[in-house]
Structures are given as C-alpha cells and as structure tokens.
C-alpha cells in the first residue's frame, strides 16, 4: 500500500508528537487525535460508527496532516487540517478533516469550499471537529446547500464527544492492550488540560432562552420549531456528559437508559425527543447506576421552570397499612431536605398523591387519599427545585442540573434499597400419630 493516496500532492503522516509551533493548538490536537485512531482500534470503531463505517480487523487506517490536493488555491483558508483513509479489502473510504478549538466556530463558506474540493478529488466525506455540539454526527453547525452534499457526506464531531467516547472506553476497560490503554489515558489527560482549548458542555443552545419564553407566553410548542430540535440536541449532549460525571461520582460506569428501538437509531431518538418535548414541555432522561435500587430519572419542566431527580420503588408487600409502608421508606432517607417529596401510587384509578418528606416524618398517613383506604403499591422519591430565572439561562440551567442530580444521589439514591419478599420458611412437619391398636381389650 502506498504511503499516500494517489490524489494527495503533499502530506505528512499524523504525528503523536507533532513538530508545530506552540501557537498552533488546532494543528497539534488534530495531529495527536488522528495519530491515535490507527493505534487504538476500539476508539476508531466508536468514532467511525457515527459515519456509518464498520471498522473490522481487516481495516487499515491512514491519517495525514499538512495536506495539499489538486485544485487547491494558494492560501491557508483552502488547506484542510487532515485527511483520513480507511481501506478494507477492495473498498476505500476517505475524508477531509477541518478542526477548530476553543471559541473558534466552523466557517460555513470554508466548509463549502472543502466539500467542492472533496468532490473534485473523489473524496467521500468532509469531517469537521470543534467545541460546537450537534444532535448527531450527520448534523453540521455549518450551513451547506443540500445540492453540494449529493455525492459528498458531511459529518461533525465535538471535542467533548470525542473525550466522552474516550472516557467511556476507559471506564469500561474496553481497551485490553496495555500500550493502547496507556495512550488512551494520556490522550484523556491531554484533552482535560485547559490549555488544549477543549470545552465540555457548559450551556444549552443559542435559542434556549427564546424557547423558554415561547413556553411561558404561548403555553405550547410544535415539533417543527427549530428551537425545539436544538433544545433536544443540546439536552442529549448534556445527558451524555452528565452520564460521565455520574460515572466519576460513583466510581463505576453509569449508562443512559434508552429505549431498545431507539438505541441504534439516533434519528428516531431525536424525533422521539422532539415529540416528547412538544407534547409534555419537559426534557427527560434516565440513568442506570450499578446496584442502585432503581433508575435515576431526571426531568426539566419548561413550563414550571423546575428541575427534578428521583427514583421509583415498589412498596413493601409485607406491610399492610399506608403508615407502615411510608415508615419503611422514611427509614432509608436520613436527611430532611425541604426539596424532597414523596409521591405515592395507588391501586385502581386513584390518582397519585404527594407530600413533602419533612411533613411525612410527623404524619406518615398524610399521603392517604380521602377516596381510598388501600395501601400504596409504589413510591417515588423526588428532589424538586424551582429554578426561576436561572432556568432560562443557557449556563445556569446546566450548572443547576449538574448540581442537583449528584445531590439527589448523595442524599437519597445511595441509601435506597428495593423491597423483596422474605424467602419462604420451611414447612413444619406434621406430628406423627401411631396407628390405632387392633389388639382385643383385656377381660375384666
């Protein structure tokens, strides 16, 4: 296999230790990232899966920087940061790479020039990388006419997403090879340093405040609103980041709970999220924490401007009264935080009832509805916080969310235990009685 593709006039292999000026942060991080892709197959599999590529054992990845292609004009604005070539047997896939770092944004006109350049040279795709987030990889922060994308794909990865994928691999210990695992850890350390210019999710999309105002003034949302799709995309990105924060918080890998039919279909998941937000005016997520009593459910209510985190538990079946079942729950919750509420679910058509946990300490029967004397079959423990003006802030919304979720786990989640019926006791043996004697009675 040739060192470089035939159409590449000039280009160097991506270096793990690039010889670049200290001011060239974009070139440095791009070279390091591209150099790692051929060295860590698990990372390459996760990264390229978003572009619809399957990286098997036979795949050969080559990455280049400082490239020059036929048809390029003189000038740095027309020189992409890198080129990726993936060869599998007789097939070959190539992509131009353009990266930004820090506050720099992807330039639409520059991306359009690179798409045309890719078409001229038979290159399959253009990949942009920046701190901008998108709902999925085939969405781009750049405005590119669809006519330009008929023969060339356009993908976008955020540095935050790349770091997230690396952290997930590290937490799951998916990379067995010691040298590869070392490189992955070093890359994570590099990405986490503020000097690299990589930024995690710190704010919602640009139109978050406008969306909150629409809910407040109109009282409804439609699926076609671009602000709705943007909010769902921002929420998914933040949930991915929050999953990692929870993983670090508990020291084990935490998973985001996604419906099976949506797990492998990001487009369907986005559409489902848009429909849910338009209908309920809420953004929701659920996390699966190892050995926790239940999934940790999170809700952002746009109409009420509240954030909540909670867990559901089945009520103990061996306690007959509402008071006894409530006391069972309260004994597991040690702290009386005024933000904590307990919601009880009842048999039949009786609607749920809710009370503050501090009130239930004194009156456990306060949850009992007037219309029923049955005992609840399920409890929800919820930490509910009214965020008021902070809810509409792009940054303050994220700050409050990332504070409330770990707080709930510290106060409640780590202490809850799900109820299970006691094991059956041994059946007592019946007393053995001797058979009646048939001997004749003695004569008197």
TrEMBL record:
Domain of life: Bacteria
Region described as Disordered: spans on this chain: 419-444
Protein name: Stress response protein SCP2
Lineage summary: Bacteria, Pseudomonadati, Pseudomonadota, Alphaproteobacteria, Rhodobacterales
